[in-house]
Design goal:
single chain; alpha/beta; UDP-n-acetylglucosamine1-carboxyvinyl-transferase, Chain; five-stranded mixed β-sheet; four-stranded mixed β-sheet; 12 helices; 29% helix; 26% strand; globular
Length: 433
């Protein structure tokens, strides 16, 4: 039986919130700690289904991982050459990040492996990863349409390449760099637009010599990683829903503690400020190479904008939240250059456009974006398509709706934001599970 939420207007949103750890950093922290020489402690690890799936995969690859308390992992690294052959397919769940990064890592191992995922992940394109890895010498089989499962042949000798990404993707870049750790010679990746540099920053924190700047990364093969402790910042993509909610609900003021502010991640923050949002940063710090700060957000009238295309790669996961902000703004908001949204956990452009139309708005879709015409939001039933970000976005939209909003198929919220509904209710959301 599918899980659903019933959502509607609550009270002004107030409080100080601890957002769960960054999913992208959590994936990489457990991966790199597993490959390191020595023992690493990870604090703030996201207890979501995606990240737990990645940790479980490394346990099956022979890595000792302890969980002394929630959100903490102690990883006994086996070194870059210490992974063991698994006893069956490795289940990535819903984690596109996990599957794509693991493809690069496992392509270089002496043993064969198979990566599988849930129904949603099994429909996502993987040729963007398998093709550059094949250029390095990897052998990875997919279905005829390029979707999982990924059947990775072991024992392939990889050679470094200079690869220009045709489409900006941090996941593809990371997969190539991880394969490059095992390849002969130098591996370099250039991007049409700069993407998130979590992999580069964290490899450096684990002692890898890597040269990177916006839009470029380069490393040489044959390096080893040394154990290091990682403090995972609060996830900006998860914080995004509360940034938008407090911006659109009159009388609201929220403080979100120690949110990761990687400059390649915060396009939404810039877009919301262009729309007139009142968001200030306090208590800046650095955790494991990642900039963090408390974000204090207060209700403010928003205005529609034409979203600068330069911001799009830095907010690709936050567009569902942006669409809700646009729905509650004064004047239309135009999005272009976001075709990547059509191949996420769902076709997020279509899902958000359809959902907002259900609530009474006009949304003009294009192949790579949309124009959102704001207006009063009504009630209705929303299909989330099993996409956690679609589900949370419409829970936020319901806080300004004139009727009740039923959000269907919300179980996947646990993949990225376990406890979202309880945290939301605690600060003032009208939301029933």
């Amino acid at each position: 039986m599918l899980q659903h939420w019933m959502a509607g207007t609550g009270r002004p949103l107030r409080g100080t919130l601890a957002i769960p750890g960054d999913k992208s950093v959590s994936h990489r922290a457990v991966m790199f700690a597993a490959l390191a020489d020595g023992v690493s402690t990870i604090d703030g690890f996201l207890e979501g289904e995606d990240t737990r799936a990645t940790a479980a995969i490394f346990s099956r690859l022979g890595v000792g991982i302890e969980m002394p308390s929630p959100s903490r992992r102690i990883v006994h690294g086996v070194g870059v050459d210490g992974l063991r052959a698994p006893d069956g397919p490795l289940d990535c769940g819903n984690a596109g990040t996990g599957m794509r990064l693991l493809a690069g890592l496992l392509a270089a191992q002496p043993f064969a492996s198979v990566l599988v995922g849930d129904e949603s992940l099994s429909k996502r394109p993987m040729r963007r990863v398998t093709e550059p890895l094949a250029r390095m010498g990897a052998r990875i089989d997919t279905r005829d349409d390029g979707t999982p499962p990924l059947r990775i042949h072991g024992g392939q000798a990889l050679a470094g390449i200079a690869y220009a990404l045709p489409v900006a993707s941090a996941q593809v870049k990371s997969a190539i760099l991880l394969a490059g750790l095992y390849a002969s010679g130098e591996t370099s990746v250039t991007e049409p637009h700069p993407t998130r540099d979590y992999t580069e920053r964290m490899l450096a924190a684990f002692g890898v010599e890597i040269d990177f700047s916006p839009g470029m990364a380069r490393l040489r093969g044959g390096q080893r990683l040394r154990a290091t402790d990682v403090a995972v910042p609060a996830d900006f993509s998860s914080a995004a829903f509360f940034l938008v909610a407090a911006s659109i609900v009159p009388g609201s003021e929220l403080r979100l503690r120690a949110v990761g502010l990687n400059p390649r991640r915060t396009g939404l923050l810039q877009a919301l400020r262009l729309m007139g949002a009142d968001i200030v940063e306090e208590n800046p710090a650095t955790h494991g190479g990642e900039p963090v700060a408390d974000l204090v957000v207060r209700h403010a009238p928003l205005r529609g904008i034409e979203v600068p295309e330069a911001l799009v790669p830095d907010m690709i996961d936050e567009f569902p939240a942006l669409f809700v902000a646009a729905a509650c703004a004064e004047g239309a908001t135009v999005v272009r250059g976001a075709a990547e949204l059509r191949v996420k956990e769902s076709d997020r452009l279509a899902a958000m456009a359809t959902g907002l139309r259900t609530l009474g708005l006009r949304v003009d879709e294009t192949p790579d974006g949309a124009t959102i015409h704001p207006g009063p939001l009504g009630g209705g039933t929303i299909a989330s398509h099993g996409d956690h970000r679609i589900a949370m976005a419409f829970a936020v939209a319901a806080q300004r709706a004139g009727g009740r909003v039923r959000v269907e198929d919300v179980a996947n919220v646990a993949t990225s934001f376990p406890g979202f509904d309880a945290l939301a209710r605690g600060c003032g959301f009208g939301l029933e599970s």
